[in-house]
Amino acid sequence: MNYMKVVPCDIANGPGVRVTLFCAGCNHHCPGCQNPTTWDPNGGQPFTDKTLDKIVDLLRPDYIQGLTLTGGDPLYQENREMICKILIRVRHEFEGSKDIWMWTGYTWEELIQQAAEELKYQTIPTTVTIIRNINVLVDGPYIESKRDISLPYMGSSNQRVIGCNKSFALRRPVLWWTPEEKKGK
């Protein structure tokens, strides 16, 4: 896996102060994407164990709320094995005290289907491992005609900010917030 950059103190990609990893590689190629330079999986630089150590060290201060994985697409097929490794390490190091957010062009339903196929064919369950180890998933491709800058953490109104734990418990996507909550109703 390659990555474009690590932002050590990010306040734009999730709540609080976060460490954000911009992954290289995306097959969605959404028209109007804000990060088209991240589409090339060979762009940026190789992600190494040293890079992972750096991210873990950047997450250590108490004022850092969590880790954000974005891109490109962290779930670009060639990224998934390393994303699993990152998630497992962060969960182990911080025992759940840091939340993990992920942006992807895949929908929740597509990921659940991919996870089911991995289990059915007894392949390495990378998708299951990934979605079980993140707290919040911002799903769906960016659709330029549905652009809405008033929505927190989303670029277009088709996207959803999904709370993963509740979604697994209820076996359906559950929003992390609702538009009514956003408006203070």
Question: How would you describe what is shown here?
Answer:
By secondary structure, the chain is an alpha/beta fold. The protein has one domain (2-182). Helices cover 31% and strands 21% of the residues. It contains 6 helices and 7 strands; from the N terminus they run βββαβαβααββαα. The chain has helices at residues 49-59, 80-94, 108-120, 126-132, 164-170, 179-182, and strands spanning 2-10, 17-23, 45-46, 64-70, 99-103, 136-139, 160-163. The protein has a 7-stranded mixed sheet with strand order 3-1-2-4-5-6-7. Strand 1 and strand 2 form a beta hairpin. The longest helix is centred in the middle third of the chain and has 15 residues, at 80-94. The chain starts with a strand and ends with a helix. The mean pLDDT is 92.
Taken together, the total number of domains comes to 1
Identify the strand order in the major beta sheet: 3-1-2-4-5-6-7
Question: How many beta-strand runs?
Answer: 7
Radius of gyration: 16 Å
Determine the N-to-C terminus distance.
43 Å
**Fraction in helix:** 25-40%
Individual helix count: 6
| Structural class based on helices, strands and sheet pairing | alpha/beta
Please state roughly what percent of the residues sit in beta strands, choosing from under 5%, 5-15%, 15-25%, 25-35%, 35-45% or over 45%: 15-25%
Q: Please outline the major beta sheet.
A: 7 strands, mixed
Topology as a string of helices (H) and strands (E): EEEHEHEHHEEHH
- What is the approximate shape? globular
The residue-averaged pLDDT reads 92
Poorly predicted runs:
none
